[in-house]
Amino acid sequence: MASRTKGKTTMEVGGDGVAVITIINPPVNSLSFDVLDNLKSNYEEALGRNDVKAIVITGAKGKFSGGFDISGFGEVQKGARKEPKVGYLSIDILTDLFEAARKPSVAAIDGLALGGGLELAMACHARISAPGALSGLPELQLGVIPGFGGTQRLPRLVGLTKALEMILTSKPVKAEEGHSLGLVDAVVPPAELLNAARRWALDIAGRRKPWVCSVLKTDKLPPLGEAREILKFAREQTRKQAPNLKHPLMCLEAVEVGIVSGPRAGLEKEAQVGSQVVNLDTTKSLIHVFFSQRGTTKVPGVTDRGLVPRKIKKVAIIGGGLMGSGIATALILSNYSVILKEVNEKFLEAGIGRVKANLQSRVKKGRMSQEKFEKTMSLLKGSLDYESFKDVDMVIEAVIENISLKQQIFADLDKYCPQHCILASNTSTIDLNKIGERTKSQDRIVGAHFFSPAHVMPLLEIVRTNHTSPQVIVDLLDVGKKIKKTPVVVGNCTGFAVNRMFFPYTQAAMFLAERGTDPYLIDRAVSKFGMPMGPFRLCDLVGFGVAIATATQFIENFPERTNKSMIIPLMQEDKRAGEATRKGFYLYDDKRKAKPDPEIKKYIEKARSVSGVSLDPKLAKLTEKEIIEMTFFPVVNEACRVFAEGIAVKAADLDIAGIMGMGFPPYRGGIMFWADSVGSKYIYSKLDEWSKTYGDFFKPCAFLAERGSKGAPLSAPLEQSRSRL
After folding, report:
1. Alpha-carbon distance 129 to 704, whole Å?
2. Which residues of the chain are modeled with pLDDT < 70?
3. Could you tell me which of 600, 599, 598, 582 has the C-alpha nearest to residue 590?
C-alpha cells in the first residue's frame, strides 16, 4: 500500500509549543491527495493537543510547495480515486479548518510557493519567506483556475489589479516584491526561516502580532464601482488575447462574486467553476501538454540504461549568422564557454556583434545587469581556424543549407577535434547521414536543431541516426535542459519532425490560393484557430529564399505528395522576398506592420496560368472550418507518417514539437491530440474524398487509412510490428 502513496507530511512539536508540519513530496513538494490527507490529519492532531500553541507549515529540502499535483485529476478521471465534493479542499479544509482554527499558523516559504502551494500559504495567518522565493498562481497556464481559495485571498492581500495581473499572466513574484505588496509579512535568510516563523506564530498566539484571516480582509479591495471597471477591462483584454479560452473568464467570475457578494459566496463560486473547468476540452489539452512536455526526456533504449551525462565545458559553433549567434547566446547565458568560428574577420565581427545585441536587449529590458552582461560576453571567443578546437567537448555546425559545405566541415572536424567531442549539425532539413558520410566516427554525429531565434524559441530537436551512440543523446538531453530548452529526440529523415510534419501546411495554403481561396482569409482563419500567424504571413517572415530552399528539399524527397506552386517564384522575379524587402504577400511599413496587398491577385492569376490550374468555385467559397481542415489535415497525415516510421518515439513528442517549434496552439493539445479530438474516421474520410478530387497531395497514408477506417486513435502506441508500417 505504501508504495502507491504519493508524498506525505510529518509533524514535530518543539519545546516552544510550535508544531512544525513539513510537506514531503519530491521534487517540488506538490500537494497530492495523499499529502492533503496527511496535512489535514496533522492539523487536526495539532489543534487537539494541549502542548501545541501554534503551527508552522514548511516544505522539505528548500521548497515550500509547487502546487496541487495535477496527476490527481487523472486519478479522478480514471476512477482510481473518488472525486472530493465541491469545495471540500478550499472551504472545508483550508478555510473552515485551517484559517478559522483557534491556533494560529504561519507558512515558512523557501524556494517556491506556486498554485495550491501559495493558496495554502495564504490560508495561514502570516507568511515568512526566504529571499528570492517565488510566489504565484500559474493555474491558468494548465487550463484550470486557482481552486484552493486563490481567487478570493490574493486580491485581498495584494489588491485587485495586482492580483488579476498575477493570475492572468501566471507570472510569480519574488519574496522581496511579495513583501512590498503585502503578500509576504517578512523576508529572512534561509538559515533563520524556520525559527523566525516559529517566533511569529507564537507572537500571534500571544497577541503580540496581528491574527489575520486573509479571506476576511477588505482594506486592499477597491470600491465596488471601481472593482467592476477593473474586472470589465480585464475581461476585454482576456477576450482579445485568448479568444478561444473560456477558463480565464470563468476565473474572473469567481473573483467578481467574492467582491460583490462576499468571500464565502466567492469561495463557493470558485469551487463550482473549478469543478467545471476540468471538463473543458482546452483544459484536457493543456494538462496533456504539461505531462507530455515532461515526458520528452524519457527515451526507451537511451535514458533507461543508467548512462550519466558527461560534463560539457566548451562548445564550438561554426557559423555566426542568425542561427549560430542565437545558439551561442543560449549557451553563454547558461555559463558554457563558446568558440564562434567564421570564415573571415568581417563575418566574425558581425557574428559576435549579433550575440552582443541579443544580450544588450536583455540589459535594456532590465533583465540583465551590465556586470552580468560583461561576464557573460567574456565566455565567448572568436576564431578563424580550427586550432582552438583541440579541447572542445561539442561542435555545433550552423552554416547555410549546403550539403557539400557541411560535408567538408565534418571531414575537417574529424581531424581537429578530440575523440570524445560530439559533432552536431543544426541543419533543418538535410539528412545527417549525407552530411557526415566523409566522417570516420559516425557514432558521434547528431542533429541539434534549434529554431529561430535560437536563444528565444523553447524547442531543441535532437536528431539521431542509426549510428548515434546513446551516450551522445544523453549528453545532449542534459545540455538541452541546462540551456532551458525542451528537447525532443527524433529520428533522421528529411525535415526531421517539425519541418517534415508542417511542410504540407504552407503547400496546402498555396494549393487553395491558386484555386480561388483568398490568401488573407486563409491567414485570418488560421490565426483565429490559434496559430501565431497564418502561412502567408509566415512565408514573409522567414523570407522567400528560405521558403523555396525548404520546399525544394521536400519536392526532391517526396515528389509524389508535394504541391508545386509558382506563386513565390513569380513574386521573387519582381524582387519581392518577404518582410525583409517590405514586400511579400503583405506590404510592410517602417514598424513592420503588415497590410494586405491588392497586387497579390495578379501573381496568383499568373501562377494559375503557368501551372495550368483552373479556378474552383467550391474552394473560392470555403468556410473558416473548411479552410482549417484543408490546411491542417495534410499536416496530420504527414505527422502520422512520421509516427509510423518511428521518427518520433511517441505521438505526444510530436504534439510538443509542433507546439514549441511551429506555435501550434497548446490549448488544442498538439497536432496528434487535436486530430484525435476531431476523430481519425472523419479526417481519413475527408482526405480520401479530397485525394479523389484533387490528387495525391491529400492521399491518406497507410497508417492513417488503417486507423481511420476503424476510428482508432492516431496517438495510440504503435504495435510491435512497427517495421510493417
Report:
1. 54
2. 1-5, 77, 720-725
3. 582
d(CA 130, CA 53): 24
Per-residue pLDDT, 714:
97
Residue 622 identity: L
Whether the upstream peptide bond of residue 27 has omega within 30° of 0, thus cis, is: yes
Query: Beta strand pairing status for 173-174 and 134-136?
Result: antiparallel
**CB 508 within 8 Å of CB 631:** yes
Place of cell 555545433: 396
Cα 703 from Cα 646, distance rounded (Å): 12
For residues 318 and 328, give the distance between their C-alpha atoms in angstroms, rounded to a whole number: 10
pTM: 0.92
Cα–Cα distance between 447 and 500 in angstroms, integer? 15
CB-CB contact of 485 with 540 (8 Å): no
Rounded to 10 degrees, what is the CA torsion of 11, 12, 17, 19? -20
Q: Which residues 6+ apart lie within 8 Å of 554 measured at CB?
A: 429, 494, 495, 500, 503, 507, 562
Helix axes 345-364, 370-377, angle to 10 degrees: 150
**Which three-class secondary structure state does DSSP give residue 109?**
strand
pLDDT of residue 77: 67
* CB 12 within 8 Å of CB 19: yes
Task: Tell me the three cell numbers of residue 595.
Answer: 497590410
Residue 404 grid cell: 557539400
Q: Which residue type sits at 672?
A: M
The answer to whether 140 touches 251, Cβ cutoff 8 Å, is yes
394-397, strands of its sheet edge to edge: 380-383, 337-341, 314-318, 394-397, 422-425, 445-450, 459-464, 486-491
Of residues 535, 396, 533, the one with CA closest to residue 454: 396
User: What distance in Å separates the CA atoms of residue 155 and residue 536, rounded to the nearest whole number?
Assistant: 43
Neighbours of 696 (CB within 10 A): 11
Of residues 490, 89, 517, the one with CA closest to residue 270 = 89
Cell triple for 244: 478561444
Residue 114 burial (C-beta neighbours within 10 Å; 0-12, 13-18, 19+) = buried
Give the integer Cα–Cα distance in Å for 193 and 133. Answer: 12
Rounded to the nearest 10°, the torsion over CA 467, 471, 475, 480 is 60
| Residue 489 bridge partners (DSSP) | 462
Q: Enumerate the active-site residues.
A: 119, 139
Helix or strand run (H / E) with residue 54:
strand 54-59
Map 293-325 to HEC letters.
HHHCCCCCCCCCCCCCCCCCCEEEEECCCHHHH
Pairwise CA distance, residues 516 & 604, whole Å: 9
Residue with cell 521573387: 572
Round to whole Å and give the CA distance between 607 and 612: 8
pLDDT of residue 569: 94
Residue 255 contacts residue 164 (beta carbons within 8 Å): yes
Report how far apart, in Å, the C-alpha atoms of 340 and of each of 377, 391, 444 are. 12, 14, 20
Helix/strand/coil for 446 = strand
Amino acid 434: pLDDT: 87
pLDDT at 438: 84
Three-state SS string across 114-132, please? ECHHHHHHHHCCEEEECCC
Encoded amino acid at 608, one letter: R
pLDDT at 73: 75
> What torsion, rounded to 10 degrees, do the Cα atoms 224, 226, 228, 234 define?
-140
pLDDT score at 3: 38
Strands (E) across 426-494 are located at: 445-450, 459-464, 486-491
Please say whether the dihedral angle defined by the alpha carbons of residues 537, 519, 243 and 115, taken in this order, is positive or negative. Answer: negative
Provide the pLDDT for residue 81.
79
